[in-house]
From TrEMBL:
Chain segments carrying region Disordered: 1-44
Molecular function via GO: ATP binding; protein serine/threonine kinase activity
Record's GO cellular component terms: cytoplasm; kinetochore; nucleus; spindle pole; spindle pole body
Domain Protein kinase stretches: 64-319
Name of the protein in its database record: Serine/threonine-protein kinase
Gene giving rise to this polypeptide: Piso0_004072
Enzyme class: transferase
Gene Ontology BP terms: filamentous growth; mitotic spindle organization
Organism whose genome encodes this protein: Pichia sorbitophila (strain ATCC MYA-4447 / BCRC 22081 / CBS 7064 / NBRC 10061 / NRRL Y-12695) (Hybrid yeast)
Length: 646
């Protein structure tokens, strides 16, 4: 048999390519070191991987010529492989001798099954898998420009414009994974590689797992110490889900901008203690923007439910800064010039184009990754890989799921006779929370250089009755409009000094529709609800005092959601305002997307000011509010919980 003559394979770059980096070991104590003297050092599992033969032959007749050794991790070695047409790949090589039990075998087959079913511009492409008598080979596209870890080792720190570009590509890939119910669980700089065009590709799915449903959890403690999320350390007591990947994005962002992970220490147990307490800081000698700090702090929230989900990260103000069109090869060795001089308009275009390339806007209508029992069992006693994972089996059986089906916001829709803007509630919460955080960071800036909001008193809920055990929640606004938020989530609003009433109806898959009707000649299906509205109106007018003095109707406002706690009741209005009635009878309203704040005293005197002014002064100027800053902190946390949890 003649041998095809090919050019010898050349090394691409030194260091690891497409291979798992070493996991930081737990260092023994001094006593342990003394006891270990003279003992043979434990051999890495990757050391069991024998160098493949010069030509690796597969079951389907394809031959691959082995090339340069690329690197190794804790479990595998990586070699170049060239096919008969001259195309070069990276082969992750796992020794069969290291697969000592059924659990280890299932883990490897699960990695292959998950990775094979993925297809995304920012995920290392799976090409093939095969085996010989000694090794199992996972053939992947080759990423010749090393990883983010190698870049950071050379550069020490990267600029914020570069980090923005990196994060968009990473977020695009993670959004795709999460839409298919895949958690990576080992996201780190060393597992994110540069392809020949300097696009980032996420690799190494050795710890990846598929959630059977969006509300299920995993309990295995796994990952790389510097990147492990606090809930992973809780093991079976807490469990973990998609949020561990969000935490890892925060770790990587911090490391890129500061130069090292936030919890880094020589002793791994110290790392874990710092993670559990969220014990990190921003060194003053390595300044970064306030917007970057806000995003990092939110990504590294101890409570996983307080972290932004993968669809919300790119909405942060940090991404509005200077944004390059791509990553250039010079970034591997030095800082590119002119990154801070990209215009705002061009940055916005580059940001949008990068999101499109990363699949942010790509609709997905298929099924999640599914691990079948038949995929994880060999069909021959000697073989490791079942036929269902071998070449010839198409990817079409592994379908994707639309990410918006996993909690998509309801589209807001209105009848043409009612022109109002009601944003999706959680998005309003998210924007308001972001603005409050931004003002907290900028409160030491000069106020005369800031653009301040207009500060007219907002429309407020003046009276309310909670009768949700039977009908719903009734309220009267300070413009005397009367509304009822019924238990079925529909709302009626009877306009003061008018024969009109508005009905806000929830429709499945369509959102909210507002219909205007005559109160004197209502539709038959609305008569009973109007009777209930009138009942509440009479009760409130007879028994309750107003929160503030009468206001003219500046806008039509509904109550869309309310929350009662032991310390306050929180009202979320359709105009984006948040009203908090505290148990000490002081009321505070946040308006203008978090830029303005109103206080109503127990004797019904209202005052509205820019929030930045109150944060700087520590209280309201004309009437002091007890525990003012503490109340604002409570408000911020309540809005944050709504943004990230509900």
């Amino acid at each position: 048999m003649s041998t095809v003559r090919t050019q010898p394979l050349q090394p691409l770059n030194n260091g690891q390519l497409n291979a798992r980096t070493n996991v930081t070991p737990i260092k023994p104590t001094r006593k342990g070191k003394e006891e270990d003297k003279g003992k043979k050092k434990k051999e890495k599992l990757s050391a069991l991987c024998k160098t493949p033969p010069s030509i690796v032959r597969t079951r389907n007749g394809r031959d691959y010529r082995r090339g340069t050794f690329l690197g190794e991790g804790g479990f595998a070695r990586c070699f170049q492989m060239k096919d008969s047409s001259g195309r070069i790949y990276a082969a992750k090589t796992v020794a069969k001798a290291s697969i000592k039990n059924e659990k280890t075998k299932t883990k490897l087959l699960s990695e292959i099954k998950i990775h094979k079913s993925l297809k995304h511009a920012n995920i290392v492409n799976f090409v093939d898998c095969f085996e010989d008598d000694i090794n199992v080979y996972i053939l992947l596209e080759i990423c010749p420009n090393q990883s983010l870890m190698e870049l950071l080792k050379v550069r020490k720190r990267v600029t914020e414009p570069e980090a923005r570009f990196f994060l968009v590509q990473i977020v695009g890939a993670i959004q795709y994974l999460h839409s298919r119910r895949v958690i990576h669980r080992d996201l780190k700089l060393g597992n994110i590689f540069f392809d020949p065009e300097m696009n980032l590709k996420i690799g190494d799915f050795g710890l990846a797992s598929v959630l059977p449903s969006t509300d299920s959890r995993k309990y295995t403690i796994c990952g790389t110490p510097n990147y492990i999320a606090p809930e992973v350390l809780g093991g079976k007591n807490t469990g973990h889900s998609f949020e561990v990947d969000i935490w890892a994005i925060g770790i990587m962002m911090y490391a890129l901008l500061i130069g090292k992970p936030p919890f880094q220490a020589k002793d791994v147990q110290v790392i874990y203690e710092r993670i559990k307490k969220s014990d990190y800081s921003f060194p003053p000698d390595k300044p970064i923007s306030d917007e970057a700090k806000i995003l990092i702090n939110d990504l590294l929230s101890l409570n996983p439910l307080h972290r932004p989900n993968v669809n919300e990260i790119l909405n942060y103000d940090w991404f509005k800064g200077s944004f390059p069109d791509k990553t250039h090869e010079i970034s591997l060795s030095g800082t590119p010039e002119g990154l801070e001089n990209i215009s705002k308009a061009q940055s916005a275009i580059n940001f949008t184009n990068t999101k499109v390339s990363a699949g942010i806007y790509t609709p997905r209508n298929k099924n999640p990754v599914e691990i079948l029992r038949s995929d994880l069992h060999s069909e021959q006693p000697r073989a490791m890989l079942p036929k269902s994972l071998s070449p010839g089996d198409t990817r079409s059986k592994y379908q994707e799921v639309d990410p918006y089906q996993l909690g998509r916001p309801r589209r807001v829709n209105f009848n043409s006779s009612f022109s109002a803007s009601i944003k999706y509630l959680n998005q309003v919460c998210f924007e308001t929370y972001q603005n409050i955080r931004k003002l907290e960071y900028s409160k030491y800036d000069r106020i005369d250089t800031m653009e301040l909001p207009s500060c007219e008193n907002p429309t407020l809920i003046s009276k309310w009755v909670d009768y949700s055990n039977k009908y719903g929640f009734s309220y009267q606004l300070n413009n005397n409009d009367i509304g009822v938020l019924f238990n079925d989530e529909n709302t009626f609003l009877k306009l003061h000094d008018s024969d009109r009433f508005l009905e806000l109806i929830y429709q499945e898959n369509e959102g909210w529709t507002c219909i205007e009707n005559s109160a004197s000649h209502p539709p038959s299906q609305a008569r009973r609800q109007l009777e209930i509205v009138d009942f509440f109106a009479k009760y409130m007018n007879s028994n309750l005092s107003k929160v503030s003095e009468n206001e003219d109707r500046k806008e039509t406002v509904f109550l869309r959601r309310y929350t009662r706690t032991a310390d306050y009741i929180m009202f979320e209005m359709t105009n984006g305002n948040f009203q908090f009635n505290f148990k000490d009878h002081h009321k505070i309203c946040i308006s203008k997307n978090g830029l303005a704040i109103t206080h109503v005293s127990p004797n019904r005197i209202a005052q509205t000011h820019p929030l930045i002014f109150i944060l700087k002064q520590g209280n309201f100027p004309s009437t002091e509010v007890p525990d003012c800053l503490e109340k604002i902190h409570t408000i911020k946390d309540a809005i944050k919980r709504k943004a990230f949890k509900e």
